[in-house]
Design a protein that fits this description.
Blueprint (H helix, E strand, L loop, with lengths): L5 H5 L2 E3 L9 E4 L4 E4 L7 E5 L4 E5 L9 E6 L5 E6 L12 E8 L5 E7 L6 E2 L3 E2 L5 E6 L13 E6 L7 E11 L4 E5 L4 E4 L3 E7 L5 E4 L8 E6 L7 E4 L6 E3 L5 E2 L3 E5 L2 E4 L11 E7 L3
Parallel strand pairs: 1-2
Antiparallel strand pairs: 2-15, 3-14, 4-7, 5-6, 6-14, 7-13, 8-12, 8-14, 9-10, 9-11, 9-13, 15-16, 17-25, 18-24, 19-20, 19-25, 20-21, 21-22, 23-24
Length: 288
């Protein structure tokens, strides 16, 4: 019997193509969408902030040949934005919006935004910028498709601070489809090695809503957990006929989950789990 070590797993090949050698196991990476590589300043501008300057810096680079260097005067709030030169970015099939950042002489709190018509339609929330290059991930999967299918602006917000001129760098902004797949080739066919459980959240619409999951296969169980305290949680299982069951009253409610299929589930208009703008977390399970 051979013993597989952590180091052996760590050397699994990565790429976008399926494995072709019998016995080969490979991490299949999803195709990313580049918003800007920050090698040119073409799409970048200062939205607001008196005296704020931006330039391409070829001496501080995470990838490529340059980064966008931003200098913020003392006591100034800065908003730096990347506006698509033409057309728009369709982010509906992507789970994460990512940006690589580094603070040169301070570690301020900052924020990320994006929008279709205005820079601040979608808001990540404050986080602390690092003195080293860090890839910040923003989970955008819960934002409605209508609010991210034609994005045109990405922005970084830096609040004012007294006593220090702040300098930071932006290098590479992109959208990521989410977790990589692990596939194996058994000599006859390529086998997808799926996780048994995935978690996530969605924003209710009040209308029938389909939630697309991060893996293929028809779920065998779904648990919906509304983030609003007054709402009831629901569980769905194939064994109970495809209906949702209210955990607090044991009442069958077929207006909750109305369809379950390969990589998705569809919600009805039940107010507990699909009220407009309310956030609902989910846990989905598979048998395979």
């Amino acid at each position: 019997m051979t013993q597989e070590t952590e180091e052996e797993y760590a050397t699994l090949e990565e790429g976008e193509d399926d494995p072709i050698e019998p016995g080969e196991i490979k991490v299949i990476k999803g195709t990313t969408l580049e918003l800007d590589d920050c090698d040119l300043i073409t799409q970048w501008s200062v939205h607001s902030g008196a005296g704020v300057t931006i330039e391409v810096d070829e001496s501080e680079v995470y990838e490529g040949i340059g980064s966008i260097k931003v200098t913020v005067p003392v006591g100034i709030t800065a908003i730096i934005k990347c506006t698509k030169s033409s057309g728009s970015w369709d982010l509906t099939t992507y789970k994460y919006l990512k940006v690589v950042l580094r603070a040169e002489n301070a570690t301020p709190n900052c924020n990320l935004y994006f929008g279709e018509a205005a820079y601040n339609e979608q808001n990540l929330g404050a986080f602390t910028m690092s003195p080293s290059w860090v890839q910040k991930s923003w989970d955008i999967s819960g934002i409605s498709a209508a609010s991210r299918n034609a994005a045109t602006i990405f922005a970084v917000y830096i609040p004012n601070a007294s006593g220090v001129v702040r300098t930071f760098h932006i290098d590479y902004v992109f959208a990521d489809p989410g977790p990589s797949q692990v596939k194996a080739f058994d000599g006859d066919k390529v086998i997808q090695l799926y996780p048994k459980i995935c978690t996530g959240h969605y924003h209710g619409t009040g209308s029938p809503l389909t939630v697309t999951l991060n893996r293929k296969g028809t779920p065998s169980g779904i648990l919906l957990l509304p983030n609003t305290g007054a709402r009831d949680s629901f569980a769905w299982q194939t064994e109970i006929g495809g209906y949702a069951k209210n955990l607090s009253s044991s009442a069958i409610a077929n207006t909750v989950i109305t369809a379950v299929g390969d990589g998705y589930f569809t919600l009805g208009t039940n107010a507990n789990t699909n009220t407009s703008t309310e956030i609902v977390s989910y846990i989905v399970m598979w048998d395979d």
